[in-house]
Amino acid sequence: LSERESDWADQMRKALNGDEDVYRTLLQSLTIFLRQEARRGFARYGRGTADVEDVVQETLLAIHLKRNTWRTDEPIGPWVRAIARNKLIDSMRRGGRRINVPIDDVIDILPAAEPVEHLTEATAEEILARLKGRQRDIVEQISIKGASIRETASLFTMTEVAVRVALHRGLASLSKAYRAQES
Amino acid sequence: MKTDDFISALAADLPSKPMPVRRALSLAALAATPIALAIVIFGLKVRPDIADVLVQPRMAFKFAVMLAMTASGAWLALRLSRPEPAPGRAVLALGITAALIFVGVVTEMVVLPTNLWKAAFWGDSAFKCLVLIPLVSTAPFVAFMMAMKTGAPSNPALAGAAAGLLSSGLGATLYATHCQNDSPLYIATWYVLGILIVTFAGAVIGSRLLKW
């Protein structure tokens, strides 16, 4: 069991008890690891690194939304890697539509009327744009603008509870929007 | 969006504690069991001789098998709700249940004269089971599937199948208080088939519903 992983486990236990600062530190530390993994994974399958940051964010989102599936008495490394692998595969599936074959070789077998698939994966911004009005505003305020829950609440004249609910729903819809890109 | 900014949104959402799958499944059982029980009591009627037969070996065996199915389903559902691939020993529970059924069937074949096998196998309503077990399992199925959505299964189809097994194990346990057929020959065929139908439905629905 590596030192890094036992740090992660400690941090996650503290986070699950409500320590937001430790949680932020943990997510930052996980980001570095996930970025390496995504780069390596993409390289192995001959894909560019354009979507790396997107997979990292999608994986962080999954780790966040599914943090209840880590059992605090078990090592955290396998859990993190399993989520990362899962999200990397999802991304590969979506990216798998990018075919780098000379068009002359396949033009005969392509059905004529097939619509052109979107060629690049949606970035987080594009996904964020799919969120409904207030949810998007709130996620944007708290992420890009770096506002706190309280600041966001007074900005939109909402209660803090309502902001929290909207933020959570926004993140859940974000995860759903990622999934909607598949199939 | 910069990942650091994104982390701010995730950290701000920390108080939104998601429910552990174990608790979600327990709540689902609490919510759905009364409904399934009501269907058995008011819709199908509990067999009148239930108090007398409960202690008889065939009836006891029937309940033991159904409870073993339910327990395996619960254990598998919990295990398969996690992102890490499940270890092979997760299927051990199923093996024990299968062994239990096997022992029951062999015992029945030893104690029951050959000319009675056919009647024991078909019972009085072979296909009724195939309809009623899924029917009684419906409420548990919906509840357990929803509970499984709090998980992050490495294989959504398998996780759905486990939830289906759990639902139909519970449904069949309750249904067993109505059904008059107690021979292991009957149980091993028609009950198991009814349970398999629901388990298969769980796999199909789970493969879509339980993606995360």
Secondary-structure map with pairings?
The complex is a heterodimer of chains A (183) and B (212).
Chain A: H1 3-16, H2 20-44, H3 52-65, H4 77-95, H5 103-106, H6 124-129, H7 133-143, H8 149-155, H9 160-180
Helix pairs in contact in A: 1-2, 2-3, 3-4, 3-9, 7-9, 8-9
Chain B: H1 3-12, H2 21-44, H3 50-53, H4 57-80, H5 92-111, H6 117-122, H7 126-148, H8 156-175, H9 184-209
Helix pairs in contact in B: 2-7, 2-8, 4-5, 4-8, 5-9, 7-8, 7-9, 8-9
What does this structure look like?
The complex is a heterodimer of chains A (about 180) and B (about 210). Chain A is mainly α. Helix content of chain A is about 65%, strand content about 0%. Chain B contains nine helices and no strands. The two termini of chain B are about 20 Å apart. At the A-B interface, helix 2, helix 3, helix 4, helix 6 and helix 7 of A face helix 1 of B.
Brief summary:
The complex is a heterodimer of chains A (183) and B (212). Chain A has helices at residues 3-16, 20-44, 52-65, 77-95, 103-106, 124-129, 133-143, 149-155, 160-180.
Keywords:
heterodimer, A: 183 residues, globular, B: 212 residues, mainly alpha, elongated
Element-by-element helix/strand order of chain B: HHHHHHHHH
> How many E-type strands of chain A?
0
Query: What are the segments of chain B in which pLDDT stays under 50 over at least 5 consecutive residues?
Result: none
The largest sheet of chain B, given as strand count, sense and whether it forms a barrel, is: none
Q: What is the number of E strands of chain B?
A: 0
* Secondary-structure class of chain A: mainly alpha
Low-confidence stretches of chain A: 96-103, 109-121
Helix content of chain B: over 70%
Round the Cα radius of gyration of chain A to an integer and report it.
Answer: 19 Å
**What's the number of helices of chain A?**
9
